[in-house]
């Protein structure tokens, strides 16, 4: 960093990272956390400043989610987000965290249409996100993604799978609805989750899945850490869209969201309160935030 850019007036990110007060999050560290029952606290992030604040607040993992299509780009769904846009936002997040602790685990979301065609297409897209600085890529879908996950993992790319409500296929699902309520749907989710762990997925987002089913799936997957959103407190970790947990929206708050800005003096404090609530198990509260 040159002297002329060391003290930027815009935002207050430090020019260089001080020594990190915690060990960097890695796959072995996530496994250790899991084994001692420590919950994983994840948030979405899309830019340098919020990512840096989240890292400072002790968030374990940041998901550069394609939800940026809605929260940053004002689209009605995630479907229109491109790989170039995902790489751009991933680079921004990576730059932000490098200027604070640089210890957070960063997951880049593969957007719609960039992994469905073939395993080779998925590899090219995943490589672009990894080169942008992600530590892991996320892709949505059940059984049909298993061979793609295996192909990426064998080539050294850590993968987070995503089951339940998969926003890229919201049109096929008929809306943002709880998934896995019927016996057949629940069976399919159990089967897909096991197959994804066997293929090498080390993380699995479970979105809007009934709490009892998400807990059961979590117990079946010792090597694949379930991260719930609207799926109750029994998962290995939790994720929320950052704007939601900061209360930045004008419409109806989704049932599974808690506004952590209430009672917080700053965004950093709200994020730290989120981390504390995930870790001590007070968020989510199944009676309020789950099905
Ligand atoms: O894109 C995203 O932010 C996500 C989370 C909602 C899990 O996939």
Automatic annotation (TrEMBL):
Its main location: cytoplasm. One of its GO terms (cellular component) is cytoplasm. Its EC number is 2.1.2.11. Its cofactor is Mg(2+). Mg(2+) binds at residues 66, 109, 140. Keywords: Cytoplasm, Magnesium, Metal-binding, Methyltransferase, Pantothenate biosynthesis, Transferase. The active site is at residue 207. The keyword DNA repair does not apply. Catalyzes the reversible reaction in which hydroxymethyl group from 5,10-methylenetetrahydrofolate is transferred onto alpha-ketoisovalerate to form ketopantoate. NCBIfam families: panB (TIGR00222), PRK00311.1 (NF001452). Homodecamer; pentamer of dimers. This is 3-methyl-2-oxobutanoate hydroxymethyltransferase. The lineage of its organism: Bacteria, Pseudomonadati, Pseudomonadota, Betaproteobacteria, Burkholderiales. The gene is panB.
């Amino acid at each position: 960093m040159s002297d002329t850019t060391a003290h930027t007036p815009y935002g207050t990110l430090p020019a260089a990272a001080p020594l990190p007060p915690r060990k960097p999050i890695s796959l072995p560290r996530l496994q250790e956390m899991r084994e001692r029952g420590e919950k994983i606290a994840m948030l979405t992030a899309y830019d340098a400043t919020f990512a840096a604040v989240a890292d400072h607040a002790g968030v374990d993992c940041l998901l550069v989610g394609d939800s940026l299509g809605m929260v940053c780009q004002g689209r009605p769904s995630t479907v229109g987000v491109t790989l170039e846009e995902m790489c751009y936002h991933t680079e921004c997040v990576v730059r932000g965290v490098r200027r604070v602790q640089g210890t957070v685990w960063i997951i880049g979301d593969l957007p719609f249409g960039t992994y469905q065609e073939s395993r080779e297409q998925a590899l090219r897209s995943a490589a672009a996100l990894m080169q942008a600085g992600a530590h892991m890529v996320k892709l949505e879908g059940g059984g049909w993604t298993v061979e793609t996950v295996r192909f990426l993992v064998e080539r050294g790319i850590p993968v987070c799978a995503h089951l339940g409500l998969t926003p890229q296929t919201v049109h096929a699902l008929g809306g943002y609805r709880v998934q896995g309520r019927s016996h057949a749907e629940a069976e399919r989710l159990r089967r897909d989750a096991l197959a994804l762990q066997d293929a090498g997925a080390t993380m699995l987002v479970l979105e809007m899945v009934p709490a009892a089913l998400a807990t059961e799936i979590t117990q079946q997957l010792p090597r694949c850490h379930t991260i719930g959103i609207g799926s109750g407190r029994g998962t290995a970790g939790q994720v929320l869209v950052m704007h939601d947990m900061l209360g930045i929206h004008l419409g109806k708050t989704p049932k599974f969201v808690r506004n952590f800005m209430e009672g917080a003096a700053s965004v950093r404090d709200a994020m730290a309160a989120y981390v504390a609530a995930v870790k001590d198990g007070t968020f989510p509260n199944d009676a309020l935030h789950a099905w």
